[in-house]
Amino acid sequence: LEIFVTILNENDNDPQFPQPNLTRFVREDTEVNATVVAREDLSATDADLDIIYYELTTTVQGTDGYFAIKGVNNPEIYLQKALDYDKFQSTRLLLYARDRPVGSPDLTRTATATITIMITQADTRAPWFLPCVLLHNDTSVCISSPYSGTVNISEMAVEPLILRPGPIYAIDPDSSINEKILYSIVGGNTDEVFSVDADTGNLTMNKIVTSPDSFLLQVMATQANNVRKYSVATVEIKVINKSLYPPHFERGLYNGTVEVGLPPRSFVFQAGDPSTPLSITAADEDFPDV
């Protein structure tokens, strides 16, 4: 008597990931739809030879929607939405591998892999001159004010010029890269009167100014590693007469009179001369015509 015995496979094995914990570094300028983790690094096996069904979730609030898998049977992870280093620098994904479809009434065995994604900053922004103000809280744009300063006519300044609202200074807004900034004057420097230190941004004089005409310099801040990453700021330098004397009031004491009950903005008159408004004036020997 021949007896044929058929062994029926029982679902008694869990799926197995080749690596239950993975870490990947992803640049913030990675193109959308690019692969982040390859399929072969995530494909689970099952000793029962069952078809594996995958599901991807994130555990970090605010990072939903950035990463996805190619399909329910394809665990390859790709970038679904453009990254921004300023929004988040890392996230943690959970990849589930099941030997039955989600919702199946049959016994389902599951494995879980943890994928840590670290976002690395890319060199995406040009230098910022400081101080500056973010445009509508947009971390990609910072608006700076023009710099301004003065020099005395026919006088050579030996120290770096004092400017408002502060010295010429720019930074690389890609803070984790923090590339070195170089400075140069690219416009408005008539007769090469001024120089800027390439490393510090200090503005100095090369020669005296004999004309009262102002200068409107254009100073460029460039990343040392990439001349295409640059910004330009304006620096207005006014030429003035040197001030040797402080201003002074023409009198040490002024006396005036007012009548009771006068409405606001009424004149105060000189004491003893009710027809002449009281005038308080000062003079400066440096500026006799002012």
From TrEMBL:
One GO-annotated biological process of the protein: cell-cell junction assembly
Endpoints of the signal sequence: none
GO function terms (MF aspect): beta-catenin binding; cadherin binding; calcium ion binding
Keyword Endoplasmic reticulum: no
Entry keyword annotation includes Repeat: yes
Compartment annotation: Membrane
PROSITE patterns: CADHERIN_2 (PS50268)
Matching InterPro entries: Cadherin (IPR039808), Cadherin-like_dom (IPR002126), Cadherin-like_sf (IPR015919)
GO CC annotation terms, alphabetical: adherens junction; catenin complex
Stored Gene3D superfamilies: Cadherins (2.60.40.60)
UniProtKB keywords: Calcium, Membrane, Repeat
Domain named Cadherin: residues: 18-129, 145-249
Pfam families, alphabetized: Cadherin
Domain of life: Eukaryota
PANTHER family: CADHERIN-23, CADHERIN-RELATED FAMILY MEMBER 5 ISOFORM X1
Protein's UniProt name: CDHR5 protein
Native source organism of the sequence: Tyrannus savana
